[in-house]
Amino acid sequence: MNTELLLEGIPIAVVGYTIVFAILVLLYLVFFYLAKLLEFQARERCKRAGKAKCVEGQDFTISGEVSAAISTALYLHFSEMHDVETGKLTVKTISKRYTPWNSKIYNVMNRL
Amino acid sequence: MDGLFQFLSYSGFANFTIGHGVMILVGLLFIFLAIKYNYEPLLLIPIGFGVLIGNIPYLQDSGFAIGVYDEGSVFRYLYMGVLKGVYPPLIFLGIGAMTDFSTLISSPRLMLLGAAAQVGIFLTFLGAILLGFNLNEAAAIGIIGGADGPTAIFLSSKLANGLNGNLNLIGPIAIAAYSYMALVPVIQPPIMKLLTSKKERLIRMKPPRSVSKTEKILFPIVGLILTGFISPGALPLLGMLFFGNLLKESMVTERLAETARKPLIDIVTILLGITVGASTQADVFLTKQSLLIFVLGAISFMIATAGGILFAKVMNIFAKADNKINPLIGAAGVSAVPDSARVVQHEGLKEDPTNHLLMHAMAPNVSGVIGSAVAAGILMSFLL
Question: What is the pLDDT of residues A60-97, one digit of tens each?
């Protein structure tokens, strides 16, 4: 066992782990307060617009479950729209335009 | 007649050793696990087939330039992407473009679980030193505990690449990392059961709130600035991860995001898998060090899993009664995305078929990716 290397390695491990933790704690704090800030801004905008739902203390955010339900409903609505049929036949007659390729007389007379 | 004998001496049969046989069996095992049990098939099939390619015996001094270690061979050129650490950042770009950080943004406290799980990296680093590896090699081995293949390859290509008196451990480390990632459904559940009570496994977590577009766009930018300034060594990985995520979340670069998360990551995965597999030539791979790396890697992975679970239990001590964390999701702090989150979901459903933990588990899972890349950057800045 190389004690010298181990003594060199322990501070690297301790400091390294502390830094990893510190970075993720910092990210946690930033996004924790960022969410609050964005909610505050949205609430202020809402108050200015005079909407009733932006009363202080009322849950302002939509839960993930609610948005998932709305998304699913929209998805089903748009994906099933295709299946709503009018009941009318949609086969259209195409006007047969004249072309030498389907002209019997040209073939008979061989005038091409 | 001489020509015939020469031809035979060049053939695989004439140069076959037991080592080649063992490695061919390993390659076949990887392919079997991928096809039969669906264990990480996108990785194990290219790696397994690469192992077969790398272990078809040939006359080493024939001058054919065939294997990844032969100067001038085609495989050598493809292997350069591994050796120079080119492939891992490209993989991270794709991961960023396909990852939704919403659950992490909606419950940022779960990031701490991803941080806690990185304990495996640093304890294994010390364990590897105790077993006789030097600091650089030990750091490269420790990163297996991050359960992140590209990060493991990136760090080992920098620290244990056969240069400056270090052993070339890229092959064994990559194989160990990807093997344990594939074995997440086998390794993690017993540890999860051992460290949690039934009551804890039944905890229902609050559903995450919906996340605004602004938060989603800010996350990669703020994440890059914070992590990049503190640990610039992680920039090749985290820079690409956050860049890929911004391509996705900005909603104005859909074509680029689509390329990053589909064709690009697929191409790089093929090249990475096949060349890492081919680098496991029996004479280079079957050593005492490789065996030690596999043992240390397993320990590292188990410690990381336990670290995440135990930290979730510690967080529960301070959490409000209606806002407890199901400690099973701590296991997803290792960054095997999304397998460990899937294992958490599976184990949670076993206890309560109506308790879905997947979305909660994705938060520590993606924070584990960030955590292990930061750990790699820190180790590089200490040791390079």
Answer: 666 667 777 888 888 888 777 666 666 676 666 666 66
In chain B, domain spans? 82-383
**Cα–Cα distances in angstroms (integers) from residue B156 to residues A30, A97, B350, in the given order:** 32, 73, 38
Of the candidates B154, B147, B192, which has an alpha carbon nearest to the alpha carbon of residue B300?
B147
On chain B, the residues whose CB falls within 8 A of the CB of A13 are 122-123, 125-126
Quote the pLDDT of residue B232: 92
Torsion of CA B181, B186, B190, B196, to 10 degrees: 50
Residue corresponding to tokens 């053939």 = B11
Q: Which residues of chain B have a pLDDT value below 50?
A: none
pLDDT at A61: 66
A80 min Cα distance to partner chain B (Å): 25
**Residues of chain B contacting A35 with CB distance shorter than 8 Å:** 105-106, 108, 215
pLDDT for the residue B76 = 92
The Cα B76–Cα B58 span in angstroms is: 16
A chain contacts of residue B383, beta-carbon cutoff 8 Å: 12
Residue % of chain A over a pLDDT of 90: 24
The amino acid at B183: L
Of B106, B112, B367, the CB nearest to A64: B106
Cβ <8 Å between A20 and B208: no
Considering CB atoms only, which of B126, B219, B226 is closest to A10?
B126
Give contacts of A28 with chain B, Cβ < 8 Å. Answer: 108-109, 111-112
pLDDT at A75: 84
The pLDDT value recorded for residue B265 is: 95
pLDDT at residue B264, as a whole number: 96
> CB under 8 Å to B244, separation ≥6 — which residues?
B92, B93, B94, B95, B96, B97, B98, B99, B257, B260, B261
Chain A CA closest to residue B115: A21
What is the complex's ipTM, to 2 decimals?
0.87
pTM of the model: 0.85
How far is residue B257's CA from residue B193's CA, in Å, rounded to a whole number? Answer: 39
At B14, is the secondary structure helix, strand, or coil? coil
Asked whether residue A9 carries a pLDDT value surpassing 90, the answer given is yes
Which chain B residues are closer than 8 Å to A22 by Cβ?
230
* 3-class state of residue B209 by DSSP: strand
Indicate if the alpha-carbon torsion angle B328, B330, B332, B334 is positive or negative. Answer: negative
Task: Report CB contact under 8 Å: B379, A27.
Answer: no
